Amino acid sequence: xxxxxxxxxxxSFDKQEVIKDLxxxxxxxxxxxxxxxxxxxxxxxxxxxxxxxxxxxxxxxxNGKDVSRxxxxxxxxxxxxxxxxxxxxxxxxxxxEFGLKNNKVGKAERTELVESISRAVGLYDYLDRKPSxxxxxxxQRVALAxxxxxxxxxxxxxxxxxxxxxxxxxQMRIELIELHKKLGTTFVYVTHDQVEAMSMADTIVLMNxxxxxxxxxxxxxxxxxxxxxxxxxxxxxxxxxAELGANGVKYGFRPESANLSxxxxxxxxxxxxxxxxxxxLGSETIYQVRSGSGAFMIKCREDLFAVDQEAYVxxxxxxxxxxxxxxxxxxxxxxxxxxxxxxxRGQRHG
Length: 350
Ligand SMILES: Nc1ncnc2c1ncn2[C@@H]1O[C@H](COP(=O)(O)OP(=O)(O)O)[C@@H](O)[C@H]1O
Ligand SMILES: [Mg+2]
Prior knowledge:
It is elongated, with a radius of gyration of 24 Å.
């Protein structure tokens, strides 16, 4: 078990700062997901925890202890990569056992560990197989098991599911959640996929360009995004955001927060537009509505409209968000919030 802490950490590559003055606490035993667009610095953060690529300044603490001078192998962390390397000529058992042999763990203890861990990840019946006879998901489990035998106090996982097909990815997501529950170990999981972050995390840490945008449990990240970036990174389609006026203030609403109707409704926000696109996804339909105020994505439970049809978009007051000129979300308790709500009510759109 271990907590991890970054204190004013900066990381540069050839004078280019990719992590800027970052402070972060990762709680012991939690499933923390680092998420953000490609190139935002997620792998760099993981490698600093593992000790593979030390920070330029600031400190990294594991269990409150500065690990700057501690070698990667001594930190009690195990890393599982996207391109996990398993040895093709070794059996599953030999692959899992490999690190233990190097650490001079005795035969009896090795066998017991390998068997209990292979049971935990569902590989017990495959111990004598060669990796080439396994499915992608099973190979991924071999990589996990190999990390697990070292009994690390922290698991670092860098996009471990991105090479798997969509169906298997969903299954492995559930397996990882269960594995985390079973082990109770600190998991730090990196992904660029917000759906993975939302479905697996106790805590999401959302980054952009080396800077943390928000740190929150999934439901709070969704309902109370701290800024425009978070509001549009989390959720598919992203939150609709448009200019309120000339003062740089923006308003926003989620695609499922709007009502679409053939007649104007009595919601605070009302806009007339035309259906530009329609995507029927089975349980829901996503429309793009174009109007004089811009294009808006609307998610409906029912499939009632056709392309080119005129429709009204209505959003109730409690589903509206406002963002200041600095792009930070304005809280409903802020005095300016009421003013912006009234400004939006006063506008006739479309
Ligand atoms: N070894 C390196 N040398 C130079 N630049 C690097 C190196 N590793 C990463 N970077 C740069 O640091 C930034 C963050 O990279 P990375 O942490 O890999 O992002 P992510 O994992 O979020 O996609 C990128 O701009 C990348 O080009
Ligand atoms: Mg990466």
